[in-house]
Amino acid sequence: MYLGDLRSCSLESLDFITNRQKRILQKFGFESVYDLITYFPFRYEDRKEIASIEKSLLWQKPVTTIVRVIEHDHIYFQNKRHPKIIIQDDTMRAALVGFHRPYLSKNLRIGEKYWIYAQFTMKYNEIQTSSFEFEPYQENVQPKNFGRIFPIYRLPGELSLKEFHTILKKLLDSYLPQMEDEIPVYAVTGHKLLTKEEAYREIHFPTDQKLLYRARLRIAYEEIFGIQIAIQLKRRAVSSYTKPARYQKREKTDALIGELPFALTNDQKKAMEEIFHDLCSPHPMHRLLQGDVGAGKTVVAFFAMLLAAENHHQAALLAPTESLAFQHYENLVRMVKDRVDVALLTSSTTLAERKNILARLKSGDIALIVGTHALLQPDVVFSDLTTVVFDEQHKFGVEQRIALAKKGNHPDMLVMTATPIPRTIALTLYGDLDISIIRQKPSDRLPVRTHWIRPSEYHQMREFIRKQLEQGRQAFFVYPVIEASEKLELKSLEHYYHQIREWFKPFSAVLLHGKMSTEDKMVSLESFRSGRAPILVSTLVIEVGIDVPNATVMVIESAERFGLSQLHQLRGRVGRGRHQSFCFLVTEEDITPEGKERMEIMCRTEDGFEIAEADFKQRGPGEILGVRQSGLPELKVANLYDHRFLAMCTEDARRIISYDPQLTLPKHQGIVQGILRFLPLDYLRSG
Questions:
Q1: Structure-derived torsion over alpha carbons of residues 299, 303, 306, 308, reported in degrees to the nearest 10
Q2: Contact present, 118 and 132 (Cβ < 8 Å)
Q3: Ranges for the Helicase C-terminal domain (predicted)?
Q4: Which of 64, 84, 427, 533 has the most CB atoms at less than 10 Å from its CB?
């Protein structure tokens, strides 16, 4: 039995978990034994070393200590009586304040000794704590929850930590001895890794800090090694595909690029040459084009599409939203100037128009098509699709990429992202792709001046924006809408919209949010793009896909509620013209330390790669890049910033696939049965 097999072991079949516990666990998202065993503590309390109350005060951190209860007292808080237990160790007295814990006076008896884990502080002229754990002390008896490293899990309120520990111990005892190791024995011994059983016992119930570190290292190795094996196999499979010589000419494409009203950056030119080299290769292109906001990735993607058209083939660009698809379509039409047939296909395309587009696509009359998920429908048939471009690729799942790729014969694939990814991380998560990076921005772009605005500065900001509007400029106002309270938030957004209209009379404003009909969205966008409405009040739907060079102001309300990458994307909507642009990050006066850090980073730098590094460290790369969308397993332990560790896992996987490409050797059957069997097959086929 491998770890992945436990996905099919339902909690319903376990008689040592009560029906109440099962209901709570299932409501919290746990369905199988696998879900529980791979749910790791989010922190640990080291309760092994015994220290004093005095040391806790000096070190300003929690300690484990042995105390005697001296007396019972009480305090009044919010018109309620709460127990206060006076304790003493070898150094001093302190108070345990039991807010909403009326049972303490019964459980902590005067004269008895107890284990206590707490951080003590000086408050109201006494040493006290209100957050503490305790257990009766008995000579020569090992305590249950003290004298060891104690794991802490995020749990629903109805389930106690004690209950969860009991469940986990029984699960580990029942299943770990049966578990086979996916990692080859020579890799485990060569890297001096813990065995699988040792690692999973130690990460849940560590015996010491060194073994806990080694347990995390072992599980991190499993995660990265599994991803790299899949990537190496996929890369080998892709390189085995061959295609006919499709691209002999590029003169017309180069001429169209040369007619652009701006000069290409060196990074753009380099990316184009890398793409052309791939297109001329006997193997299909699989390339990731990444770059900062406003760095000009779209022109590079158009270059690949135009090459297909020039050589009498077809190309498709898939965008995640209608507004972005429409913008790409308009820009492409403007660029080709009626010299190439271009079409747009979205869910809003009329039935008659759709029928016409499908017929012309099938006959080959349409060379280039831009669309949304509508392009993935089974009745969308191409005559000769050779080039596929995905914009904001992490917003598309594996199945969607496969669906479009299957409409051609091993087409050349270009995936774009405006979320800059540190190269080491990109190679780990997208190692099956070649990578082109555009860091340079057009030389005529002025840096966007970013300011963090508190409530006391709001009026001053409004007056500044009015002057920008009077000079003929345009402004975005972005408001967060959270799905959990969408109806309430949309009401709030509309109130905010009416307020802005009042503030900036006589300048008109339009509203844009995800619940509007496509027609209403397009009307709002067109009013803003044309300048008839110089103010756009919007939700995150404008994160990508709106390019208005005359817009010079971006106001992000409740900016602390956005991640760094989102803030950077939003800021990238301005600064696209020749006028100086400004971004205002509006927050409450008092926000979290993490929120403050995000505001400071945004005000300090415009470098998307630096911002991405900070965002990954705050939120984790899986959440930002959509690792689940990629078909790869979720990373729960691995630290993608340990470059040497990543290199080690990658090299191990590369050597194994190079030595045993089909993984037929007995020593590699754990990889086949324990790793590949549980990856979506579509991931390995998606080349």
A1: -140
A2: yes
A3: 460-617
A4: 64
